[in-house]
Every structure is written in structure tokens, then in C-alpha cells.
Amino acid sequence: MNDPAALKALESELHVWIAYPDNAPAQHLIEQFLPLLNQEEQDRYRRFHFDHDRHTYLAAHALLRITLSRYAPCEPAQWRFTRGAQGKPEIEAKIEAKADLPALRFNLSHTKDMVACVVSLNSVCGVDVERIRPMKDMAGIAETVFSNAEVSSLHALDEADRPDTFFKIWTLKEAYIKAIGQGLAAPLKDISFDIEAPFIRASFNGEELNNTGWQFHHRKPISTHHLAVTTQSIGSPIKIVYSDLNLADNLENTLQR
After folding, report:
1. What is the dihedral of CA 196, 134, 107, 122, to 10 degrees?
2. Residue 52 CB coordination number (10 Å)
């Protein structure tokens, strides 16, 4: 299950795992992965009104547990989580101490048809995935959460091109505020991304975040979805490694991948 080489790689890499819930039948996910969730997670799973939302939630939380077990000698069902001072999920400290686990950090995101998990060693990290879709009041939302420069760049586009750029910027913002643990309480208009630069640059109140070790990465795993990842490193830049996980496999095969 756990792979020492994978853990060693995290010393200089950030690993992003992606899965597509709709590729696995609901009954398969229930049989293989629902037992991995703790009672609180299972109760929340059952409270979702729509089947699709239950399916996505189960896929995301199974992905997280399976992913963490690749890097540490802890069975997927044994992981326990808590929330930090600002509500960011993290591994329960007593679990880390009891099993002498490495200082893994993670973040999880899900949207329709896609779930993603990012894992790092010691470094803060954030991930966000979004499905590109039309929005009735995209301009109004942008005025509320985008910087003036971001709003200007969005308005300069043809209307048909705006959703793609909107969700690219939004995933970058969301990944960053999740990494710092502030969520939507963060001053979103003060965070600005330049997505036209040779590499993505970001600033907070005019100060370059890239100059303080922050890295921002973006990709479209499939044409209909945006994914953004961010981390802060001290020293050399961290390499971002992406992998897909097939949740249609049996649990044993999934763990061996």
C-alpha cells in the first residue's frame, strides 16, 4: 500500500490525484469505498438529496483516504481528520503521533464529474476544480470577487470566451484561499492573478506573492474542467506531478496503483 519512494518524492514534488466519479457505477463506489468513510462522513453522505451529489462526495473522500495511504503506513479507513483554527481540514495530530506518520498536508476539491486531491510534505497546499458552465450573472459575480485588473481582462473578451477565463481565474483564487485556510472569508478582490504572463503571477494588495515562495499552476485535465493548484515552498520550486486514479477498479487494485 504505502510506497516509501512516493513519500521520498514529496520532498521535492507536489502530487495531484484526479478521478472521474461518473466512470465508476454508483453501486461499485458504495460497495468498495463507503466502508472506508467514518460514521460522520457516512452520515453526511446519506444526507445529500441528489444521488449525483452523494456519488461525488463518496468519490472525493475515498480518493483522499486512498491517496494518503500511498505515502504512510495507515489503512484508508483509519485516517482521522480535524479542522484547524480557520476550518481547514487536516490530519488529526494524535493519529500522526500514534503511528509516527510523516507530516502530510492535503487539500480536496470536487465538482460535477471530477474530484481532485493534492498532497504535500510539510508545505501548505490548495486545489480547486470547476466545471466550465454558463452563469446568469457572471459579470456581477466578477465585480464582487475579482480584482479590477481581472474584471477588465474579462470584459475585454468576447462574451463566448468569458466563462472559460472566469473559471480559470476562479480556480486559482479558490486554490490559494484554501491553501491559506481562509476560504471565502479572504479579501478576494485584493488577490489578483495575471494569467497572461509566461507563468502565472499573483499579487495581494499589490505585493507579488510569487516573491514569497508561492507557486501557482493551472491545467485543463479535460476540455470541460479547470484545475488549479498552489503551494508555498522555501528554497527550490516544487515540481507538480499529476496522476489519474480509476475508481472503477476494485479497492485492492486501486491501492496497488
Report:
1. 10
2. 14
Strand partners of residue 125:
231
Question: Could you write out the DSSP letters of every residue in the chain?
Answer: ---HHHHHHTTTEEEEEEE-GGGS-HHHHHHHHGGGS-HHHHHHHHH-SSHHHHHHHHHHHHHHHHHHTTTSS--GGG--EEE-TTS-EEE-HHHHHHHT---EEEEEEEETTEEEEEEEESS-EEEEEEE----TTHHHHHHHHS-HHHHHHHHTS-GGGHHHHHHHHHHHHHHHHHHTT-GGGS-GGGEEEETTSSS-EEEETTEESGGGTEEEEEE-SSTTEEEEEEEE-SSSPPEEEEEE--TTS-HHHHHH-
What pLDDT digit, counting tens, does each position of 178-235 carry? Answer: 999 876 677 889 999 999 877 899 999 888 999 899 999 999 999 999 999 999 987 7
pLDDT at 117 over 80: yes
Q: Whole-angstrom Cα distance, residue 178 to residue 172?
A: 10
- Residues 119 and 106 sit within 8 Å (Cβ to Cβ): yes
Chain centre distance of CA 194: 21
